[in-house]
Amino acid sequence: MNIDAGKLSLAGQVNYKNVMEGTPIWHHFIEMSKDPMKYNEEFLMQVIKDNKDTEYGKKYDFEGISSIEDFQKKVPVSIYDDYAEYIMSMTEDGEENLICAYPILHYNKSSGTMGNPKRIPMSERALKIFDSYVLKSAYGLGAEKIGIDWINAKSIALTESSANEEVLKCGATYGAVSAKAVRQFRPYLEMIYTSPDEAAFPLPDTNTRYLHALFALMDDSVSNVTVSFYSFFLELLRYIEGNWEMLVNDIESGKIDPSVRMSEGVRKSVEAKMKPMPERAAQLRAVFEEGFETPFIPKVWKNLKFIAGIGTGGFKNYADRIRERYTGDGVQQLKLGISASEGTFTVPFDLNCEDTALIPDSVFFEFLPLDAGDDFSKIVTMDGLEEGKDYEVIITNCSGFYRYRMRDAIRVTGKFNNTPTVQFLYRIDQTVSIMGEKTTEVALRTAAENTAKELGFELIDFSVYPDLDSAPVRYQYFFEIGQKPKGLKPKEIRFVLEQKLAEANPSMGDKVKKGICGATKLNFLEPETYMLYRDLMISKGTASAQLKPVRVINNELQRRFFFGLTEYSYEVVK
Q1: Measured over all CA atoms, what is the biggest interatomic distance in the chain, rounded to whole angstroms?
Q2: Are residues 508 and 464 in contact, defined by beta-carbon separation less than 8 angstroms?
Q3: What are the structural domain ranges in the chain?
Q4: pLDDT for 397-425, tens place per residue?
Q5: 273 by DSSP, 3-state: which?
Q6: N or C: which end of the chain has fewer CB within 10 A?
């Protein structure tokens, strides 16, 4: 890896630095994967030792813990409410050494949709783990699998943050840690990423999708895409497909089309960064005039090597659509691991892979089989996981949470060396059960996607509303549909959806058949509904990295939004 970093662009220098720092992290992970329990137990024992004099540590006799067995006997399984009073004292009164001995530098604002956002403590040590395994190790993997001839070019990055970072009374920052990371790069952002500052830190009523698309298309040397979720990139590609003529004309003229939504101040600021690019516009126009029957990305960005982001579990379908319609097989997909406000749990170990591997030194892992209910005697550690079985994740981190129920369901898929590999399934709290049927997010998604596959239409996205006011109670699905076969009728879609839902969850199918639950109502959303929802939430201060798909509509804002943008509906008419 003999490269003169001084001859690289700033983007190249940043990428090279990340590769150089990420490679040893990646190699360390490989070494740990050979004996994961050794490192996972060492992590736990160090956390217990360092926190024995905290109020929580004294309460549960951390000093008397010398093994995993001691830990499980003395320390109870917990939820957020068990820490709420401690966190209030920490954030409002500045008290220290209550649940964590390590300095708490940041509090994550949870992405939960119900109730007040939680304040999830993040210690200095946890921030280093986040930096290592979310931001760096993927560069080491990428360098090993792809090489580094891509590093001296900008990335397409779709992170946005419209909210100011709060500073709590205790002095720690509060917000999304991903947005915090992006803000640190703000002075250099435009030299690293294609998007202008006006898109990354948008003012209200700014069409950021246009800005991301315009500046990405202007740069023919783009080498990679980094996004929080693959769905965001798919959304951008659809926008380009639908608005390419305007985008190309603006690249040619160096001016923004008058119809594009933004303030005059933003328009002037952005146009000052543009110049007419007739040659690039001609290249793009020739590509897009060929149509979209074949992938356009290899023709628009000939040096694009990989897309990095979350593309497994509920995001797999978006990743598949990107490959099928826009990239073909020549662009690698680096599907990042599972992480949350409470910790960083898994990392990818190969390209184009649906599975990720548990990280032995990020948190201490315990797992409760999903079929065990709340029988905590059945909890197992990493070495007790069974391939093909589903578990709830329980973690002990280095930010003050001990035996904490994440309410995330994962499936064990195999091993990387001796370390279990997993797939994220769903949030257990997102399970729908209006009459005891317990329909998981996986079942809801499977029903929707299989309906689209059988009938041959493009499903942009979907949501489900548990309608408890109907008699009998029922599910209401919301579909945003793109291309569809000529002559396909709404009643056919609703009929097949009911069948697929019954297949995905026979309990629900049986209840509908018996009349215990009503037949599903299908609402068809107006075009670009999910784009508008994303814009709305970002304008309200939600970090883009926290904007997961709305699978279950469970608050009033979501209910009003999706019903308000319903174009028409179809249900069984008696």
Answers
A1: 74
A2: no
A3: 154-302, 364-429, 431-570
A4: 999 999 999 999 999 999 999 999 999 99
A5: coil
A6: C
